[in-house]
Amino acid sequence: MVKKDRTVFVLLLVLLLLAGLSGCAVTETTVMERPVWPKPPEIARYEYNSTLRTDLSFTGKKSSFAERIGGVGAQESPIFAKPYDVAARGGVLLVSDTVLRTVHMLILPTRSIFRIGASGGDGALTKPVGVAIDGNGRIYVADVTARVVKVYESNGHYRMTVGGPELMVKPTDVAVNDEGTRIYVVDTGGIESKNHQVQVFDGEGLFIKTIGTRGSGEGEFNLPVQAAVNALGELYVLDAGNFRVQVFSADGDFIRAWGKVGRNMGDFARPRGLALDSDGLVYVTDAAFGNFQVFRDDGQLMLFVGENGSDLPGEYALLAGIAVDELGWVYLLDQKYNKLDVIKKIQSDLSNNVQ
C-alpha cells in the first residue's frame, strides 16, 4: 500500500512537471500552435508538448559552468551528444548516449540530471544503446561494444553484468518484465553473423534460452533491433531486416507477426524504435518516414505522428528510440537534432482513427 501511494504521488508530480515544461521548455511553442495528430478536422489524439535538449530546457537553469563563464545570456549546455534510446517509468527518463558513453538519468519530479556509467569501475559503459526499467526501478543498459548488459539499482549504483562476448555478437537492446525476473537481450548479429536472436536470462543474470535464429520464417529474425514486454509478459521484437514486429509468449513461443516493407502508411522502410503503452498500442519509429506509427497489437494501423522536416516541433530528421510512460506521455529521440520530444496522448480511444 505504501509503495502504491508513493507511485501515485510521483506520477502526480510528473504531471505537474510536464505541464510546466509545456510552458517554458521550448521557444517554438510561443510562436506557433502546438502540432496535433491527426491534423484537423479529425479529432486530435496526440499533442506536441515540449522539447528537451539543454540543461535549461529541463532543469530551468543553466549549468554552473555556463553561469561562471557567461552570466546572463550564457549559452545553454546541451544534455545529449548522440542520444540513442529512451526508457520512461515512475518519473524517471533514461537516455543512452553513444558519444558520451553514458546514460542520462532525468528525474522528472526534481528536475535533476544524473549520469550512469560515466565513471570507472564495473559499472562503466563503453557504448550504451538500448535501455529499460523494471517495476522495481532497476536499470538495464545494453553495451554493444562490451557485448554485455549492465544492471544498476534505481539510484544508479552498479548491480551486475549479464551476458558476455561468448553469448552475444551485437547486443543492441534489452527488455525486461515488470518483476525483473526475465531479461531479454536483442542480439542484432550482423551481415556475416547467424546470431540474429534474443537471449533470455533470469533476474540474477543466468542464461535460460535463445529465441530465434537468422531467417524470415515465423520466430526467425533478420537484424532485430528493439524489444518490449507488455503487461501480460509477452515479448514484442522489432525485426527490422524483415520489416515486421513479432510477438512471443514469455517463454519464447511464437504468437504472431505483422508488417512489411513499403512506403505506404502502415509499412516499414527504416524501423528503429519500439514501445508499448498501457492501452495495448504498439509504437514504431521509422527514420525514413520521420514519424512513429501507432498500431493495435494485431498490427492494424491507427495513425502516425510526426513528419520529416526541419528542427521544429513534430518534425524530425533521424528518429531513434521511443518510450511511453504509465501516464501515456510519449518520449521521442531525434539523433540529428539531438532532441527529446515530449508528446501528450490526449485521447486513449483511437477507434475512429483507423487509417
Automatic annotation (TrEMBL):
Which Gene3D superfamilies does the protein's record reference? TolB, C-terminal domain
Keywords, in A-Z order: Repeat
Q: Name one GO molecular function term.
A: zinc ion binding
Residues of the signal sequence? none
Check the record and name the PANTHER family matching this protein.
E3 UBIQUITIN-PROTEIN LIGASE NHLRC1-RELATED, PROTEIN LIN-41
Kindly provide the name given to this protein in its UniProt entry: NHL repeat domain protein
Task: State the taxonomy lineage.
Answer: unclassified sequences, metagenomes, ecological metagenomes
